């Protein structure tokens, strides 16, 4: 899968999915917290693929990290490097 991704121009997405498959499934949770967990996971769900939920989550986290880094810079630096 990883080797073929280059041909289809989706290396980034395949690497995210591959990394996601290498860890414990985040959808596994205690039965008493199932509903709360489902609600939190719903924002990253994709109607066509469970695997794309990993990509959606990655994109969200990458955006949040970028925002957090930008907030660390004082306003003069933010103006120079938008």
Q: What are the low-pLDDT stretches, counting only 5+ consecutive residues below 50?
A: none
Give the tally of structural domains. 1
Shape: flat
Compute the separation of the termini in Å: 36 Å
Query: Overall pLDDT, averaged?
Result: 84
The class by helix and strand makeup works out as mainly alpha
Binned, the helix content reads: 55-70%
Rg for CA atoms: 17 Å
Number of separate strands = 0
| Individual helix count | 5
| SSE topology string | HHHHH
The amount of beta strand, in percent, is: under 5%
Give a short account of the largest sheet: none
Explained architecture:
This protein has 82 residues and is mainly α. The chain has one domain (1-72). The protein contains five helices and no strands. The longest helix is centred in the last third of the chain and has 22 residues, at 51-72. Keywords: ATP-binding, Helicase, Hydrolase, Nucleotide-binding.
Draw up the topology in text:
Elements: H1 2-8, H2 11-21, H3 34-42, H4 51-72, H5 75-80
Helix pairs in contact: 1-2, 2-4
Protein name: ATP-dependent RNA helicase HrpA
GO molecular function: helicase activity
Organism: Enterobacter agglomerans (Erwinia herbicola)
